[in-house]
Amino acid sequence: MIHFVSDTHWGHKNIIKYSNRPFSSVKEMDEHMIARWNESVKPEDHVWHLGDFSFQTYPDFKNTLRRLNGTINFVYGNHDKMIHQHETELLGSFNAADQKAGSNAWPAKMLNSIQNYAELKMDGEMFVLFHYGQRVWNKSHNNSIHLYGHSHGSLPPFGKSVDVGVDCKEITSEYRPVSMDEVIKYMAKRSAPVVDHHGMKDD
User: Fold this and answer.
1) 120: which of 38, 112, 127, 197 fits an S-S bond (Cβ 3.0–4.6 Å)?
2) C-alpha angle 70/74/77, rounded to 5°?
3) pLDDT tens-place string over residues 8-29
4) DSSP string, 164-187
5) Residue 101 sits in a domain of what CATH number?
6) Domain range holding 29?
7) Whether pTM exceeds 0.85
């Protein structure tokens, strides 16, 4: 099973106030979201996280990653500088300093992939994954599905697009990743908009 999520903001005290999250402390928030994640995601599942993972120190960030079920693929958000700084290690690769020193310690892979943007074709559906919501996206006129984050539920769905951040209540209010099946069921009620010439028959 594949799942999608965004804007978890683990370790971010102010997000409780900014997004009106129903938690009394960062610890309560973090533990609740880890528990909901692991209830929904099985160890053999895949998760696409669409950015703004956490505001933690790097050791705390790695500890959170280790506690989460599933193989995680990551799309950069605007608050993921730390992931960028440690990308080589998180992908389980040697960096230049390791190679020069002749290190034999191959780091454990913690993220399956890291990218700025992704497209998936699964079960006859095309998914366009990006941190930011778009009005048009690849194959949007052909019923492709666009999933995004960043807006914390403040950007309404448009056509076959929706915010999958934990603060958006369109699909779930449970502060957890949503499954592909849940997304497809939600999108079955929505239609693809035609906003440019790509709706023409000769496209």
Assistant:
1) 127
2) 140
3) 999 999 999 999 999 999 999 9
4) -BTT--SS-SSSSPEEHHHHHHHH
5) 3.60.21.10
6) 2-199
7) yes
